[in-house]
Amino acid sequence: MYEEPRDPFADDPDHAEALAPFEPELDDDDRADLLEDLHELEMFERVLQPQGYRGVVVDCADCDEPHYFTWGLLMANLRGLLEANCAQVHEPAFDPDPAHYVTWDYARGFSDCWLKTHGEDTV
Q1: What is the per-residue DSSP string for 37-89?
Q2: Distance from C-alpha of 110 to C-alpha of 116, rounded to nearest angstrom
Q3: N or C terminus: which one in the chain shows less Cβ crowding within 10 Å?
Q4: Tens digits of per-residue pLDDT, 6-29?
Q5: pLDDT, tens digit, 9 for 90 and up, residues 83-117
Q6: Matching InterPro entries, A to Z (predicted)?
């Protein structure tokens, strides 16, 4: 039977407090922003998925690499933030085709133009 080694700092209250995740409560403005983003993502998926797009690409400032997120993954993360104040843990996309992902700004512009041309009731 395998057992994890005991944490040598387990009885140190300062250590336990330092490792506790910091999750500030969402205020009304944060909640409204998340709901707006979720609504936009739902619209992006309805308009862009039939065009062959799978999600959004985000340039990460920390690692200087693009990150690819499917519509469903992003919506699940936003719902997790709204419901439990934490995003779900997820694996990065495996070998994504960059041609199938767009930036948030592109998705917004494309969707706005599509809606003006086709109307809200056709989505």
Answers
A1: HHHHHHHHHHHHGGGT--EEEEE-TTTSSEEEEEHHHHHHHHHHHHHHSSPPP
A2: 10
A3: N
A4: 666 667 766 655 555 555 678 889
A5: 877 766 666 667 889 999 999 999 999 999 999 99
A6: DUF5319 (IPR035165)
Mention every residue, 6+ apart, whose C-beta is less than 8 A from residue 105.
Answer: none
Helix (H) or strand (E) holding 99: none
**Dihedral through CA 46, CA 49, CA 112, CA 27, nearest 10?**
70
Residue 107 phi/psi, 5-degree rounding, is -60, -40
Look up tokens 């340039």; give the residue: 59
- CA dihedral of residues 106, 112, 113, 117 (deg, nearest 10): 150
